[in-house]
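In the design runs reported in the main text, the only information available to the sequence generator was the tokenized backbone. The following block is the verbatim input for one such run; it is reproduced so that readers can re-run the procedure and compare outputs position by position.
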């Protein structure tokens, strides 16, 4: 019976006659044996009959909790259909309703009341974790502070690591650092699953996180830690504190940057321009915006620009207008991009003033790319680059249909949430999601396979260039700036190899580099089967 209740080992009705006898399963299962393929077909039939995406999320979560092999087989073979159900955009709604739909714990919940014994809690985990995705729930997608209900994000993220890059589920540990919440609705919600207290802050918060990091490295030597959905004021500080000491990265800052840079490189295959000639205008000045700008600056410098020149080509707009030197209200992470320019108070005026070649939306302000914005971009540029990267869909700056229609089909468009193909004037455009799932699974795979001691910006640069190179001419022709999602395991393998190559070349890896790095990376990838 214990075997049937272990999701890593359970096969359900796929246990053979011999296995049923040898493992003491006789009588627990109905007589007819199903193959993995037949089980997957049955899952899809039931899933497609459910009326809402949230119910599909719950059904898939339940499958994940009872049979991991079957769950990942379904995800891998139907990634286009299933990824939006287990991650963005559905995971945002799932986190908002997490207290109501919560059925069974997955991962570790480490509370502020556990200070002094975090190593003990981590030691309770029964598997040898190689990869931890950790959040404190303060900035979940574009939805804000969801506290412990943000656990849906690490769980979903690690599902994509396994499905998209073949990181074995046994190696994956989702962690919620429950330091409380400042969300008043959750504090008064009788079904809220977390600590019903205000958030830890200041020195107490930093000491709590540091205890977790220290304990995680002690209990799981060499573990890769990914910070996920921390608020700006914590995200930058924690990344800078640990990035040069241990194997850690922040996907919201670095992963988003790499996928955006890859999209820009793909767009330039259409426009024919050079990266260092572009002028980028970001709507948003938080983790994603400055992370993208930092990586773009590094790429421009690598192509021959001076750092000052590269910085001058990246402009940020926050809730108070253009980020310029004349302002005295700028937080530290924005100062690098404070330009010598008169203050401009709104985004449309900034476009008319600066005449950018690309606009990149990462502020989670739904509908911010108005018809005026899109038409102005089309007036300024023959092929305007329009990236509406905020998610979930309710926070998207514009839809794919709006981007193409309001620019007469000339926009080079990428989105943060999935959209269906758009038909316009006899042509079909296929927008692809500029989703971090193109980047972070491969980065994690390469870092783990090489035993890298650090995750560096050079690795994210290599990941971005590799992703852009995998976009085919046929993709570009139909308006797609990223490869088709069903190619994601191929993409992750190549990115993993590129990341591992940097690790070996820079002396960050464990052991000698294999002769065929790509073949080695592919050999490390989990393939779900019985």
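Verbatim output:
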């Amino acid at each position: 019976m214990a075997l049937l209740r272990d999701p890593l080992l359970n096969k359900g009705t796929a246990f053979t006659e011999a296995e049923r006898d040898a493992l003491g399963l006789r009588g627990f299962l109905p007589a007819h044996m199903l193959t993995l393929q037949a089980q997957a077909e049955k899952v899809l039939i039931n899933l497609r009959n459910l009326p809402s995406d949230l119910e599909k999320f719950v059904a898939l979560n339940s499958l994940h909790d009872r049979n991991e092999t079957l769950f990942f087989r379904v995800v891998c073979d139907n990634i286009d259909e299933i990824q939006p159900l287990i991650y963005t955009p559905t995971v945002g709604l799932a986190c908002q309703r997490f207290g109501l739909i919560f059925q069974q714990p997955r991962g570790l919940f480490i509370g502020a009341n556990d200070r002094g014994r975090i190593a003990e809690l981590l030691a309770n985990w029964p598997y040898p974790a190689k990869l931890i995705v950790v959040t404190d729930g303060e900035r979940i997608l574009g939805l804000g502070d969801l506290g412990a209900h943000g656990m849906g994000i690490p769980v979903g993220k690690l599902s994509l690591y396994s499905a998209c890059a073949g990181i074995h589920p046994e190696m994956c540990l989702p962690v919620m650092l429950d330091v409380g919440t400042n969300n008043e609705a959750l504090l008064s919600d009788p079904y809220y699953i977390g600590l019903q207290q205000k958030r830890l802050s200041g020195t107490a918060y930093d000491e709590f996180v540091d205890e977790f990091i220290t304990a995680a490295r002690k209990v799981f030597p060499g573990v890769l830690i990914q910070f996920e959905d921390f608020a700006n004021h914590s995200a930058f500080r924690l990344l800078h504190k640990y990035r040069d000491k241990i194997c850690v990265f922040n996907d919201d800052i670095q992963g988003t940057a790499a996928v955006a840079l890859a999209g820009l490189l793909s767009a330039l295959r259409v426009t024919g321009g050079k990266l260092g000639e572009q002028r980028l205008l970001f709507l948003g000045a938080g983790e994603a915006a400055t992370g993208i700008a930092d990586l773009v600056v590094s790429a421009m410098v690598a192509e021959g620009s001076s750092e000052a020149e590269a910085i001058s080509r990246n402009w940020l707009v926050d809730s108070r207008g253009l980020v310029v030197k004349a302002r005295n209200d700028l937080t530290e992470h924005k100062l690098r991009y404070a330009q010598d320019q008169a203050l401009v108070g709104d985004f449309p005026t900034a476009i008319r003033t600066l005449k950018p070649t690309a606009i990149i939306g990462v502020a989670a302000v739904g509908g911010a790319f108005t018809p005026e914005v899109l038409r102005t971009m089309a007036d300024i540029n023959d092929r305007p680059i329009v990236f509406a990267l905020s998610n979930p869909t309710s926070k998207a700056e514009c839809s794919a249909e709006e981007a193409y229609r309001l620019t007469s089909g000339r926009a080079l468009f990428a989105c943060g949430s999935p959209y269906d193909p758009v038909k316009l004037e006899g042509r079909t455009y296929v927008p692809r999601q500029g989703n971090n799932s193109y980047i972070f699974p491969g980065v994690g795979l390469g870092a783990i396979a090489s035993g890298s001691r650090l995750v560096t910006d050079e690795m994210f640069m290599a990941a971005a260039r590799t992703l852009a190179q995998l976009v085919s001419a046929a993709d570009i022709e139909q308006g797609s700036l990223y490869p088709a999602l069903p190619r994601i395991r191929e993409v992750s393998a190549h990115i993993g190899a590129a990341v591992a190559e940097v690790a070996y070349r820079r002396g960050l890896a464990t052991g000698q580099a294999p002769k065929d790095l790509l073949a080695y990376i592919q050999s490390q990838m989990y393939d779900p089967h019985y």
